[in-house]
Design goal:
The structure is a single chain. By secondary structure, this protein is an alpha/beta fold. The protein has two domains: 265 residues, Glycogen Phosphorylase B (Rossmann fold); 210 residues, Rossmann fold. It contains 18 helices and 18 strands. The strands form three sheets. A ten-stranded mixed sheet has the order 5-6-4-1-7-8-9-12-11-10, sandwiched between helices. A six-stranded parallel sheet has the order 15-14-13-16-17-18, with helices on both faces. Strand 2 and strand 3 form a beta hairpin. The longest helix is centred in the first third of the chain and has 22 residues. It starts with a helix and ends in an 8-residue tail after the last helix.
């Protein structure tokens, strides 16, 4: 779907109803750099995917203002028009205290819900104080939505696991509203979810939505089973619908995507070619084979197993020493959470140990770039690479895979992809791996560097066709068409 088609769909389906997106993460962050304010894009698949949709649809995006310069650029209502260089929609920022961030974000969201849903052998931590703060912050988001739409009929699109209680709270204040929520991470099976002390409240909050979206049908089925075993309700499995207390909720799979045309266009620009040349020069990337990994530093991303696989590949194939470099771009994340401190330390130690043991002359096998990188730099890295490893231990979708494919305007390159990422259901022409198996990843690297050009281009062409046909605008259009089936209230 092209932008103009989505724009027409919005006008036709949503008409003049206010369109409000709500998420924890904001799409633009203003930060002080010396005496200058700079606007940055966060390392978030959610915001990178939704920003182009909002630029087409317009409306208001409500999010936590996390930048130290955010308060300095907004009006008295906490609003700013974005993107700054060419405004298309309104960003309304909500302010949280350090205690609220610690309990709601670092605490319940990322020490309870995140490990609970990902099932990667990190035990969730459930604290009453965190849960109380989570509820309070969800109420504050509901207040912000109410302040934005009042009693008007509106469409509110809620994002992710940080706001599981929000829809119910909105509907207690706003009677003329339809809400949809997209859950960007996996939904676990009932056996995993049942350990949550507040499972009933979370499910009741989500079921206040008119529509709930997941990446895959597998996650939809897990959700239906969980609701069926926790709450008294009617499950209409053939319709993928749940009725509780007279209110119906549709459950649908909407595999999220990226702005294929936008990424491909940027990848063809001179600024990316210049950045590729800079990276080659600054990091001495003159090797015959370059691999890349792009991740937040997170224990679900499988980074240690990936690094061990590179070490194993070189042990099995010493002829590639000096001819091969793997670039791991890593954005620090959730650094106040203990499990994230541990994964940072583990990755640091692995990179140092492997490079120290294998270093010779000016060559080392792993280039570790641990900082925030601009979209231009990330695309340049993707363009430089012979192959990209996307190896999460468990993931809802993983948009890095789709961004890599979209950036490859040369029609070349190999994607090595975890079987446990949602993207694997679409990218059957990637080299699919078990991310827990170091041997499996090492073997895939061997296949990637030896794959004939004709086969590389055939696989990449098929994957690019999938993303082009099912881009972020198609994703948004499918959701809008589904929500428009509900009877919109009269303002």
């Amino acid at each position: 779907m092209i932008k103009e088609e989505l724009q027409g769909l919005v006008r036709n389906k949503l008409k003049d109803y206010p369109f409000v997106v709500v998420s924890n993460r904001e799409p633009y962050i203003h930060s002080w750099v010396g005496e200058e304010i700079k606007c940055l894009r966060p390392a978030s698949g959610l915001t990178m995917a939704l920003d182009p949709v909002m630029q087409v649809c317009g409306g208001t995006w409500i999010a936590h203002g996390s930048g130290d310069a955010d308060p300095d650029v907004v009006d008295k209502e906490g609003k700013i028009q974005v993107p700054v260089e060419a405004p298309r929609y309104t960003l309304r920022r909500l302010w949280l205290s350090k205690d609220e961030e610690a309990g709601y974000y670092d605490g319940f969201s990322n020490q309870a819900l995140w490990p609970l849903c990902h099932i990667v052998y990190v035990k969730p931590i459930f604290r009453q104080k965190d849960w109380d703060t989570y509820k309070e912050v969800n109420r504050r988001f509901a207040d912000a939505v109410h302040a934005e739409i009042g009693d008007k009929a509106a469409f509110v699109f809620i994002q992710d696991y940080h706001l599981a209680l929000l829809s119910r709270m909105i509907k207690e204040r706003c009677l003329n509203v339809i809400t949809a929520q997209f859950w960007h991470i996996p939904w676990p099976n009932y056996e995993a979810f049942r350990i949550c002390p507040w499972k009933e409240e979370i499910l009741e909050g989500l079921l206040a939505n008119d529509l709930i979206g997941f990446h895959t049908l597998y996650h939809c089925n897990n959700f239906l089973e969980t609701v069926d075993r926790v709450l008294e309700c009617r499950i209409e499995r053939e319709k993928y619908a749940i009725v509780r207390g007279g209110h119906g909720t549709s459950v649908r799979a909407f595999p999220i995507s990226v702005d294929f045309a936008g990424i491909s266009d940027r990848a063809s620009r001179e600024e990316v070619a210049g950045e590729m040349a800079r990276l080659r020069h600054e990091y001495n990337l003159r090797q015959e084979f370059i691999g890349v990994g792009i991740d937040r530093v997170d224990y679900t991303k499988g980074i240690p197993e990936r690094l061990k696989a590179i070490d194993l590949f070189l042990s099995r194939n010493p002829q590639y020493e000096g001819r091969f470099t793997f670039v791991q771009a890593a954005e620090p994340s959730r650094v106040h959470v203990e499990e994230y401190k541990k994964i940072n330390e583990e990755v640091d130690e692995l990179v140092e140990e492997i490079n120290w043991r294998r270093w010779r002359s000016r060559w080392k096998p792993i280039l570790y770039i641990k900082e925030h990188l601009s979209p231009v730099t990330l695309i340049a890295l993707e363009r430089l690479a012979n192959f990209c490893i996307v190896s999460p231990l468990h993931d809802g979708m993983n948009l890095v895979a789709k961004e890599f494919v979209s950036s490859r305007i040369d029609g070349d390159g190999v994607l090595i992809l975890s079987r446990f990422a949602g993207a694997a259901r679409e990218f059957t022409d990637a080299l699919l791996i078990n991310p827990y198996s170091v041997d499996d990843i090492a073997q895939a690297i061997d296949v990637a560097v030896n794959m004939p050009e004709e086969e590389r281009q055939k696989r990449m062409s098929l994957m690019r066709g999938i993303v082009q046909e099912n881009d972020i605008y198609s994703w948004a259009g499918n959701i809008i068409c589904e929500i428009a089936k509900f009877r919109l209230p009269v303002s």
